[in-house]
Structure formats: C-alpha cells, structure tokens
TrEMBL record:
Source domain of life: Bacteria
An example Gene Ontology molecular-function term: rRNA (guanine-N7-)-methyltransferase activity
Record's function text: Specifically methylates the N7 position of a guanine in 16S rRNA.
Family matches, as InterPro entries: rRNA_ssu_MeTfrase_G, SAM-dependent_MTases_sf
Region annotation Disordered: where it falls in the sequence: 240-259
Protein's recorded name: Ribosomal RNA small subunit methyltransferase G
EC number: 2.1.1.-
GO cellular component, one term: cytosol
Family: Belongs to the methyltransferase superfamily. RNA methyltransferase RsmG family.
C-alpha cells in the first residue's frame, strides 16, 4: 500500500498508519468503556481506509490522519453510548440526517446490528460512497437514502417512523430541529452531536421546540478521550406530533429558521 500526502491531506495509509488508527480507536473506546471486538475493528478499519482513499477524489472529510479519523470520526460518533439511555439497547429504527461520509450513523449501525438504520444525505455522491461500504461489508441493517430532510420528513412512510434520530455537523439547533424532529415518533428521541458551544444553541431553540413538539430531555457535556476536545450531546424527547406544515419546503428552514 502506498502513502501519499499532498498539502497535508493523506490519500492512503501504510501498515504503520493503519496500526496507529486501530490503537487510537481501541484506546478511545476502552477509555469510554465501550465494547470492542475483532469484528468491529476489522469493519471500522476497512471503512476508514476507504474513506481516506475515496477522499483523494471526492470531498468527504478534512480529517485524514489516522489518530484524527479514529477519535474525531469514529470515537466521536459512538459518544451517544455514553448516555446510557436504556432505549439504546433495544431493537430500534434509527436515522442519521445529513450523514455525509456516514458519521455518526454508520459507526453506530455497525456497533448495533439489531438496529435498522437509515443514513440520509442530499448529496448523491456521498450516498454512493456509503452504499459501496454497506455492500462491501455486507451490512444488512443499513439503508442509504438520497434526499433532503425537508422532503423525506413529509413522506408518510418516513414521517414520525423513527425511534431515534441522530445528526452531527449539519446546522445550528433551531434549523436542525425542523429537519430532524418530524422524523421522530412521539415518545422517541432526537440526539444532536455538537461541539462545546452546544448549550448556547439550546437557548436559541425554545421556539422551534415548542412548534415542532419536542422538549430538552437532557444535555451532556463531555471531552474526547485523547484530544480532550469539548463535545455536547443534546437529547430532545418528542412529546407531541409535529404540525403537518413542518418541515417547510426545501430551502425555507435555512432561509427562515424558527428562532
Ligand atoms: N454528519 C457528517 C459528519 O458529521 O461528518 C457530515 C457533516 S457535513 C458538514 C453536512 C452534511 O449534511 C453534508 O453531507 C450535506 O450534504 C448534508 N445536508 C445538508 N443539508 C441537508 C438537508 N437539508 N437534507 C439532507 N442532507 C443535508
């Protein structure tokens, strides 16, 4: 395997770099007390290598160094398991809105084969990248769906059909709530993976929560195990049905967010 680096971006990993990725992943998961198996290691490694290789000709991620990919993509994606919500152990229908290169939905789906996971993104080429990994790794519990959340949230077969919806790095919370809460069943949860400014976004979201039918269940602040970068998990519980007019048509929520 060849290693090539241009302008700081890695486009492939050599054996040493693969070992570094695996070590960082193993250590991060151990520090967070998350179970790690040889099968998880094998699938996460194949996924990470393909991410970095594909990123050479498709814009998927700015993070390509082995330690960064392990901690800032994989370990970070698994942070919802720190919530110890009893619901996380069940057999669930989950969605990841604006999944991009698959974060957080794909690492979560790989760790929980009993979940049925729909990874959604509006960019077709990112969906094709994800479909290739799903096929190559034989992941029977993952569906990749190309489309805008505003449109998917109005489809009767998807609307209010998920027990749990995740999203990372897609939009600030008031807009994100309009994209995600319509997909959550009443009684289900939306979990936003945010940076250290997450608590401030909660303050901006009162109006969106009250219109869309959600309440803040709790907010957990944490640090990534190695870099100590701050993260916030915002857990929203859906308490009543979302009015039919939401999500509004594609583009409107971002132009005119509910603030
Ligand atoms: N969640 C991934 C992560 O944390 O690495 C990707 C984050 S990337 C910055 C944002 C992604 O959201 C992009 O892949 C973009 O295509 C997608 N996206 C933005 N708005 C969307 C919408 N309205 N519906 C579906 N996907 C959307």
């Amino acid at each position: 395997m060849t290693e090539s680096i241009s302008a700081g971006k890695m486009t492939d990993w050599n054996g040493e770099q693969i070992a570094l990725f695996q070590e960082q992943l193993r250590n991060g998961m151990a520090l967070w007390d998350l179970p790690f198996t040889p099968s998880l290691e094998q699938i996460y490694t194949a996924y990470a290598i393909k991410l970095v290789q594909t990123n050479a000709h498709m814009n998927l991620t700015a993070i390509t160094d082995p330690a960064g990919v392990a901690e800032k993509h994989f370990v970070d994606s698994l942070s919802p398991f720190l919530l110890r919500l009893p619901q996380l152990n069940g057999s669930l229908r989950i969605a990841d809105v604006g999944t991009g290169a698959g974060f957080p939905g794909l690492p979560l789906a790989i760790a929980r084969p009993q979940w049925n996971c729909v990874l959604m993104d509006s960019l077709q080429k990112r969906c094709r990248f994800l479909s290739d990994i799903v096929a190559e790794q034989g992941l029977k519990n993952v569906e990749v769906l190309h489309g805008r959340a505003e449109d998917i949230g109005q489809q009767p077969q998807r609307r209010e059909k998920f027990n749990l919806v995740f999203s990372r790095a897609v939009a600030r919370l008031p807009l994100l709530l309009e994209l995600c809460l319509p997909l959550v069943e009443v009684g289900g949860f939306f979990i936003a993976l945010k940076g250290s400014d997450g608590p401030a976004e909660v303050e901006e979201s009162r109006k969106a929560l009250s219109i869309l039918g959600g309440v803040i269940d709790h907010v957990k602040e944490l640090r990534l195990p190695s870099s100590q970068d701050g993260r916030t998990l915002i857990v929203v519980r859906k308490t009543k049905g979302t009015p039919k007019t939401y999500p509004r048509k594609a583009g409107t929520p971002s132009r005119n967010p509910l603030i």
